[in-house]
Design goal:
With 169 residues, the protein is an alpha+beta fold. The protein has one domain (3-163): Aminopeptidase (3-Layer(aba) Sandwich). It contains 5 helices and 7 strands; from the N terminus they run ααβββαβαβββα. Strands 1, 2, 3, 4, 5, 6 and 7 form a 7-stranded mixed sheet that branches.
Length: 169
């Protein structure tokens, strides 16, 4: 991936996620060297990046950290198509984080994933800070193709904390 492509992805990330749900520019760019991290992009007819899916792929499961579509073409179905393609190529469970269903936007986002086949798990979960000085962020875990058991949730959460969020204990 060249610098310009990464810059477009990071700009999409900034336009799509609050600061508490993304890393710094250098922190995000540093993930490109991690063998578990994968960026999938969608381009338009001019070969410009219009959407991306950022995921972590582990032996037991996959974790979609970010998916975003250029604000100009949101609602066109591109995000759903990207997610569906990612789900279809996987034989492993897929997890993602969502906000608590306290707002209309959060409820719509959860509904989007439920229509794709994801389940909202009942377990308490916080996303550790992605940048220095931030607080833990209370979120919920959604999973595909089924709800997680308590044991699976603990195992996957420990893996996320250790490998994605770099929490040692």
């Amino acid at each position: 991936m060249n610098e310009r492509e990464f810059d477009k992805i990071f700009a999409l990330m900034q336009a799509s996620f609050p600061e508490s749900e993304r890393r710094t520019y250098s922190g995000q760019k540093g993930l490109l060297t991690d063998s578990h991290y994968r960026l999938i992009t969608e381009t338009d007819n001019n070969n410009l990046i219009i959407a991306f899916l950022a995921a972590w792929e582990f032996p037991l499961f996959r974790f979609v950290e970010h998916i975003a579509v250029d604000p100009i073409i949101r609602g066109s179905g591109i995000g759903g198509k990207m997610m569906t393609a990612y789900m279809e190529e996987s034989k492993k469970p897929i997890l993602l984080e969502v906000e608590h269903p306290d707002t209309e936007l959060a409820q719509r986002r959860i509904g989007f994933y439920e229509r794709l086949g994801f389940y909202l798990n009942p377990f308490e979960y916080v996303q550790p800070p992605l940048q220095k000085g931030q607080d833990d962020l209370p979120l919920k875990i959604m999973s595909y193709p089924q709800l997680l058991t308590g044991e699976e949730f603990v195992l996957y959460k420990e893996n996320l904390y250790r490998n994605v969020y770099k929490i040692k204990d």
